[in-house]
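User: Here's a chain of 251 residues. Predict its fold as tokens.
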Amino acid sequence: MPDNKRVRDLTLVDLGQQTLIIGCDSTGAVGPKSGDQLQVSGELLGRMIAVVPIMEVMASGALPVAIIDTLSVEMHPTGENILNGIKKSIEEAGLPLSLINGSTEENFPTSQTGMGVTVVGVAERNDLRIGSSVDGDIVYLVGKPLVGAEVLDKPRLVAGIKTLRYLLEVTEIHEILPVGSKGVDYELKLLAITAGLSFEYLLGADKVDMQKSAGPATCVLATGEREAERYLKELHLPVTPIAILKPDITF
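Assistant: Prediction complete.
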């Protein structure tokens, strides 16, 4: 039976020379229905929620091979609009739309939107980037932690799929970790632990709300050499060096 383990927000299934990477995200009370607490279009909702697991899986070094949507709404019109948003995120990631499968709620009428997206990816063992940070790496925060209506109001501060694809091509960047609802500080600690390292905050860290939710992964942590900063500046996004990775001296 294949060995599996939980690493950060991902499930890793060891298949020998390859590893199956599974990520997911969900939301409720956000959407176009009368009972939703935050009113957004179905298309925008689908786009935002699909971004999170797509980015998490791709950041690990895996190639998505299946994207599953579980929509707690009717197919027409709400589900169809959500699917249009999911498809836009898939296309932005440079992936084929044939990866999509899923289901909707056709038995009962709903007054509030709920949905989930699961992404399954495959990586060659040597291509995995999880835990690839090294002693001396600078941890950069790219983008800003935003949540709720802020995501709609400040799109130029959001590091999305296009940002991730760019970072994956920069040789000087070792590891990329999308920040989720638990905030920058939480993800930074996980990143260091996974690499078997500790960290020291830099002066730039005091410019960031380290505890704030980043909603649908509006920012990412990128680790790498100091030379990497010049490539990050080409993104035209906020880039803040927040920590330096150091050997773990705990016993």
